[in-house]
Design brief:
about 325 residues, alpha/beta, Rossmann fold, 2 domains
């Protein structure tokens, strides 16, 4: 299937955009060399939630850094009921137990590979998360000047109402494909293809317009060769627009977002800023966690908040302006409201 929904062409080489991504990486690397000891906040959970509520109220701007833990809190889990509902046949045939590992399985044919990924993209990009965690976060920062940087690729922020001009998806988007041709620096919307690939496997829409397995539970684990996505511009095979190596396409939309993020940070570099880190783990700390530490250290009016299930901590150097809350991020949002 020729993918024709062309989005943005990269303009990175013309130097018209600030490189907000590498700026934040450099901040993260400086932080990694500078900070030493770490601490968690003293005081009860309720006391720290009260501190965060106060910091949110007093802040002139809010910078949200979101990792996989935020979507997990929203119910976007990759195993269990969500996996069994759409992938039980793949699990039975190949011994796959979760969506993530299934994405790396060496399927014997491209028809099976793309059938699996159509389901994967559909459930994690084109359906809403089970819990309204992102909506609750949006209500909390409504009326504030805000910006979001995230390593998540599931589009949950926009679905919750966040302004897309205030979002920087650093690692890509499940909703985009790119050509395997490295000279082609375009990205392509995949929604139309995903819907056709779901129908081709036998999924049917329920009364709410959500794809589900048919009543007889019989699904096809492959799509036709004609449905395999092919780039309309260069005739090459396609792949997902996800950062895994240096072939990741940073299109014009990506560079605009990087530029906007850089501009927002410079605007408030000496202002009353709340850096609120939500569900960020230790896989890519130089993108969100470490830069947040560095920017809090450099700005005496800044406050750093870390919301994390099991990994809520801050450097000793900014402990007096840090709020660490260990637990489910969605529960914290509910108590803040």
């Amino acid at each position: 299937m020729l993918i024709k929904s062309r989005t943005h062409e990269t303009t990175a080489k013309n130097g018209s955009y600030a490189d907000g991504y590498n700026e934040t990486i450099h901040k993260g690397l400086r932080a990694a060399r500078y900070f030493s000891g770490f601490t968690t906040n003293t005081g009860s959970r309720e006391e720290n939630i009260t501190k965060l509520r106060k910091a949110l109220k007093e802040a002139d701007a809010v910078v949200i850094g979101a990792g996989a833990g935020l979507s997990t809190s929203a119910g976007f889990t990759y195993s269990g009921e969500r996996f069994d509902k759409l992938f039980s046949d793949f699990g039975k045939k190949y011994g796959i137990r979760d969506m993530y590992s299934g994405g790396f399985y060496p399927y014997p044919t491209k028809e099976e590979f793309w059938a699996y990924w159509a389901r994967y993209i559909y459930i994690n990009r084109y359906t809403d998360p089970p819990r309204p965690v992102y909506n609750e976060l949006f209500k909390l920062i409504c009326g504030k000047d805000y910006f979001v940087i995230t390593t998540n690729v599931d589009h949950c922020f926009q679905k919750a109402g966040f302004n897309k001009k205030r979002l920087f998806y650093t690692q890509g988007d499940y909703g985009l494909l790119q050509s395997v041709n490295p000279e082609n620096q375009l990205t392509y919307d995949n929604e139309e293809w995903v819907m056709k690939a779901m129908e081709a496997q036998g999924f049917v829409k329920n009364e709410n317009g959500i794809f589900e397995p048919p009543a007889d539970k019989k699904l096809r684990m492959k799509i036709s060769s004609e449905l395999i996505p092919v780039c309309a511009d260069d005739g090459c095979e396609m792949t997902l627009n996800l950062r895994s190596d240096d072939t990741f396409v940073e299109d014009e939309g990506w560079h605009r977002a990087a530029d906007a993020y850089s501009g927002f940070l410079h605007k408030y570099e000496n202002g009353r800023v709340l850096f609120i880190e939500c569900g960020v783990g230790s896989n890519t700390p130089v993108i969100i966690k470490y830069p947040f530490w560095q920017m809090t250290l450099e700005n005496e009016q800044a406050v750093y908040a870390c919301l994390n299930y099991g990994e809520a901590y801050a450097p000793d150097e900014i402990s007096d302006r840090s709020i660490c809350i260990n637990g489910d991020t969605g529960d914290v949002f509910s108590r803040l409201g």
